[in-house]
Write a structure and sequence with these properties.
By secondary structure, the protein is mainly α. The protein has a domain at 52-211 and 293-307. It has helices at 13-37, 68-77, 95-109, 118-140, 175-187, 216-228, 246-249, 258-268, 271-277, 297-307; strands spanning 78-80, 86-88, 164-168, 171-174, 234-237, 240-244, 283-287. The protein has a three-stranded mixed beta sheet. A two-stranded antiparallel ribbon has the order 1-2. Strands 3-4 form a two-stranded antiparallel sheet. Helix 3 (95-109) packs antiparallel against helix 4 and helix 4 packs antiparallel against helix 5 (175-187). The protein is globular and about 50 Å long. The model is unreliable at 25-41 (pLDDT under 50).
Length: 308
């Protein structure tokens, strides 16, 4: 008798793979979409990473950049509301003012920023960042959130922050470049987070005046104080403190620990909030509202009629 040899059955995987791959791709896409819509996973802030090309400056320079066009725009279209938040009447912006804004951005990009002193450079980058953000929103308005402006390169990109929007001194520059490769690493000032506005309700207010070298120090501290003493910045419930996700995303800029964040918050807290924070040593949770910082259309219409 011959030796028994078990019958070999063909593997099922090669036959099933063509049918499984499309399903696996769908599952992967759904997982990615799910991650982008979960609040805690919706935004991962870049690290501070110096672009040393922008370290160049002239301490002796007396050149002053004219930010009046931006100042006029802000005074006309940014409105403080009773809830403490400032909203932008994007829908009310006249075509002529859009051209003024476009011309202001072009004017800034034509400046020899490396020949400015440090104070002028700081407000240059702050104003450029905010003007570019408003310009972006106006280019696609109406939009529910800035995260829907998916123009950044890369399959997994979300939002406009990595898109090279302008060219300055021969270098193509994005919003992320301005914030994370220029402002944060060069000035190392946590108050800068209260100056940059990402067009979201969860963000510190876009102010009603432009930053200048003369008003920057006072303006930065006032912006920090306004945000920290507003519920979207910090609030205490039943002895537990809840903060903006800004303090989680950029914790390295606030001392690198929860203790460092709380120390920073106490520095700008008004007496009522300071009293609530007196015995608190840890942060319970953080949150952020990505909804657009826009004025409701009915209110914007009244604003436009008033300004016409």
């Amino acid at each position: 008798m011959g030796k028994y040899k078990p019958e070999r059955k063909p593997h099922l995987l090669p036959r099933l793979l063509p049918r499984l791959l499309p399903r696996m791709a769908v599952v992967l896409i759904l997982l990615v979409i799910g991650c982008l819509t979960i609040p805690g996973m919706a935004y991962a802030a870049p690290k501070s990473d110096l672009w040393d090309r922008w370290l160049i400056h002239d301490p002796g320079s007396t050149t002053s950049i004219d930010h009046r066009p931006w100042d006029i725009f802000l005074k006309k279209y940014v409105y403080p509301f009773e809830d403490g938040q400032y909203r932008v009447a994007y829908i009310s912006v006249h075509n002529i003012d859009r051209r003024v804004l476009d011309d202001y951005v072009i004017f800034l990009t034509d400046q020899a920023v490396s020949s400015l002193n440090r104070d002028e450079q700081r407000v240059y980058w702050i104003n450029l960042y905010n003007a570019l953000t408003v310009q972006l929103i106006l280019s696609v308005y109406p939009v529910a959130t800035i995260r829907d402006i998916d123009i950044s390169p890369g399959f997994f990109s979300n939002g406009p922050w990595d898109k090279k929007l302008v060219e300055i001194e021969g270098e193509k520059v994005s919003l992320n470049d301005i914030e994370h490769r220029i402002l944060r690493p060069i000035w190392r000032d946590p108050r800068l987070h209260y100056a940059l506005n990402c067009a979201a309700l969860g963000c510190p207010n876009l102010g009603t005046q432009a930053f200048t070298a003369d008003n920057a120090e006072q303006y930065l501290s006032a912006s920090a104080r306004a945000f920290i003493n507003h519920p979207r910045g910090v609030h205490v419930i039943s002895g537990k403190v809840y903060v903006s996700s800004i303090y989680d995303w950029f914790i390295e800029d606030f001392g690198g620990t929860q203790s460092g964040v709380l120390q920073h918050i106490r520095k700008y807290a008004d007496p009522p909030l300071a009293s609530e924070l007196s015995d608190i040593t840890t942060i319970e949770d953080d949150d952020y509202d990505w909804a657009l910082n826009s004025v409701e259309p009915t209110i914007a219409l009244k604003i436009r009629k008033r300004g016409s």
